[in-house]
Amino acid sequence: MTEDTEHKNETTTPEEASPDLAALQAENAELRKQNEDYLDSLQRERASFVNYKRRIDLDSASYAERLLAEHVKFFLPVADDLERSLLYRPDDPDCASWISGIELVLQKLLKSLATKDVRPMDLKPGDMFDPNTQEAISHEENDTYAEGQIIEVVQTGYQIKDRVIRPALVRVAK
């Protein structure tokens, strides 16, 4: 090859290069658009997966909480019986060690339940009745308490976090 032919092959006029450049620029723009579409799609899928994982985790936690509540209900009558036995404690000084033993067993049971976030509802006479967490076993006339106030807590209610396992049984003033 001669020098002229080599030089001719290497040099192209701007008119000859323009169609190739325009085609490459169009292809580049199309590929960039496709790239953006793929990136957007990937980001949506990732967000969807994160939401799915979060929903599955919440469902699993809720299921575990419901399962725990079912198992805890089995032990609540034992706590009730221990509380009742302490309400009717004998006055005999010889029974003091027996009474303290019952108190310790009750406290141990309540601490064991507390490790699983199971807590008795803190209700006292004079608190307002809440049908979401309490069950009224009677509505009575009462001079001491206003209408809607709790007269007496007959049975302690229990909850896991904010979820009621067993509503408290209460007498309510009317």
Identify the notable features of this structure and list them briefly:
3 domains; 3-stranded antiparallel beta sheet; 4 helices; alpha+beta; Nucleotide Exchange Factor Grpe, Chain A, domain 2; single chain; 174 residues; 6 strands
Notes on the protein architecture:
- It is a single chain.
- The protein is of the alpha+beta class and about 170 residues long.
- The protein has 3 domains: about 5-70; about 75-115; about 120-174, Nucleotide Exchange Factor Grpe, Chain A, domain 2, CATH 2.30.22.10.
- It is built from 4 helices and 6 strands; from the N terminus they run H-H-H-H-E-E-E-E-E-E.
- The chain has a 3-stranded antiparallel beta sheet with strand order 1-4-5.
- The longest helix has about 60 residues, at about 15-75.
Give the SSE layout.
Layout: H1 3-10, H2 14-73, H3 76-87, H4 96-114, E1 118-120, E2 134-140, E3 150-155, E4 158-160, E5 163-166, E6 168-173
Parallel strand pairs: 2-6
Antiparallel strand pairs: 1-4, 3-6, 4-5
Helix pairs in contact: 3-4
